[in-house]
Amino acid sequence: MASPRSPQGQSAHQVRSLSRQNHVTNTAGLAPGYLQANLLILPSRYAEDFHNLCLRNPVSCPLLGLTSKGNPHTIYPSTCIQEKDFDLRTDCPKYRIYKDGKYLESRTDLLNLWTDDYVGFLIGCSFSFEDALSETGLKPKHQITGTMVSMYKTCIPLLASGIFKGGTCIVSMRPYRAEDVERVRDVTRPYLATHGEPVDWGWDALERLGIRDIESPDFGERQDFEEDEVPVFWACGVTPQMAIESAGDRIEGLVFAHEPGHMLITDFTVKDLESLGKPRYN
Q1: Where is this region: Disordered (predicted)?
Q2: Within this chain, do residues 136 and 120 fall inside the same structural domain, yes or no?
Q3: Does 7 reside within a domain?
């Protein structure tokens, strides 16, 4: 039996299979070379509003793929997930359940909650560029320490769309030496489909972003800083969950998302970055 962290170096399909068997936890560093995705699943009557939210906020919510109504087995575009036995309800390591904009619980599958009215959206994840950082000697600290990346709520507003009003952006944070920040920016800049380069960095960024306490992340785990390190912040795909919370009881029925840090591994690779378009909801 595989251990929770053993899928490193395996293919996207192998990691998804292990996720289905509940053998995967934090996906940082898993399936090198494959793009990872955040997830949001909601009733179809809200799908157009959410799709437009992604288009209006492409840095925080870069759209990688989506399903047709009620179909958990096929992601558009078809190159996103290619095996026939794929199941959106089981192949993400862990899911969060929301009702009336409030978090209810976490589950390892959605099999008994899914209906034929749901539409799923896959949103780019910053874990996707961490292999490139590691290859250039800039391995993220949470991978070194075996912890989960720190994530924070900010004061950066989302551009509204339909029922999604008043939400703010989430950022992920990785400590780096101040002298390495420009290299970090250069490495991550091409990854526009997975948030791209940092949105801010340095200790002054805390005030600009509205982060009160770097020691207390809203999601993930606290990271230690060496004397010469500064926080570096990227837009984060947990942002849609804040949009759900902001919408509150304007959304009827259950909404599902990934558990932060527990991503869906896609079949997209780094080579696909330049060719990725923006899938449209019809």
Answers
A1: 1-21
A2: no
A3: no
